Structure formats: structure tokens, C-alpha cells
Amino acid sequence: MALLPYPSIFPQEALMMMLDKFRGNEVNTPDLINAAWNVVGYGLGQSMGGGKIVAGDVPEDASDADIIASVLKQYGSLDNGPENTVTFTFIPWMVVAKVAIKLIIKLLA
Questions:
Q1: Would you call 5 exposed, middle or buried from its count of C-beta atoms within 10 A (0-12, 13-18, 19+)?
Q2: What's the CA gap between 97 and 104, in Å, rounded?
Q3: How high is the pLDDT of residue 51?
Q4: Is the predicted pLDDT of residue 85 greater than 60, yes or no?
Q5: 19 occurs within a structural domain
Q6: Which of 5, 9, 13, 89 could serve as a FRET partner for 74 with CA atoms 20 to 30 Å apart?
Q7: Domain total of the chain
Q8: How far apart are CA 41 and CA 88, in angstroms?
Q9: Is residue 56 assigned to a domain?
Q10: Which domain holds residue 75?
Q11: What average pLDDT does the structure give for the chain?
């Protein structure tokens, strides 16, 4: 059986689309599900798929939007991110994948 590899390109556009949704903007649902699916794949590829598994320290009060915005800000993809409510030494890709999975489940419910 042949499986598709995990995505290997940082999903900047997908994360931006998720952040738009978390900020209350209208986003096309099929595109958003596809975006979240790409984030799940990339996140798992960076952790379970052979990358270094890092849980990371994520404050309990960090929102899903804070987590996604902080990842984008750390990658230099977001200039107007949160006031550093979440700062990662290592990106906790397992946490990011969980945020994307929660979003998919919410959209399909």
C-alpha cells in the first residue's frame, strides 16, 4: 500500500485562513477544511512523521487564535500578531495539529 507523504512545505496560507476564521472573518468552509487538513498533515509530519516531537509550553489560557498567530509570527509570516501572548522555543506542532483537528470537527458538526 502506498501512502502519500506528509506535506513538507510550511502551510502559511492555510494557517492564515484558519487565523481569519478564528478572528471572526468569513471563510469558505470547504477551503477552510482543506487548509486545516494541510495544517494537520504538516504538524504531524513535523512531529509523529519523523520530526522532533516537542510538546512545548502553551499557556492554558492561550486561545486557538493565539497559538496559530504565534506560529505565523515566529515564521515571519505575520507582522500584526498578538502581543506575544504565546512564545515558543520550539513550535509545538502536536498542539497546532490538535487546533486544526478541533476546527475540522467543529466545521463538520
A1: exposed
A2: 11
A3: 58
A4: no
A5: yes
A6: 5
A7: 1
A8: 20
A9: yes
A10: 12-108
A11: 85
Q: Taking 70 as the threshold, does the pLDDT of residue 86 lie above it?
A: no
pLDDT of residue 57 exceeding 80? no
| Integer Cα distance of 61 and 46 in angstroms | 24
Q: What angle do CA 88, 11, 86 make, to 5 degrees?
A: 20
Distance of CA 25 to the CA centre of its chain: 17
Q: Are 33 and 100 in contact (CB under 8 A)?
A: no
For residue 9, which phi and psi values (nearest 5 degrees)? -100, 130
Q: How far is CA 19 from the centre of its chain?
A: 9
Would residue 57 count as lying in a domain? yes
Integer angstrom CA distances of residue 69 from 49, 88, 97: 23, 12, 14
**Which pLDDT band, with edges at 50, 70 and 90, does 49 fall under?**
low
Report the pLDDT value the prediction gives residue 81, as an integer from 0 to 100: 52
Rounded Cα–Cα distance for residues 107 and 40 (Å): 15
Backbone angles phi, psi at 52, to 5 degrees: -80, 120
Q: CA 30, CA 109: separation in Å to the nearest integer?
A: 14
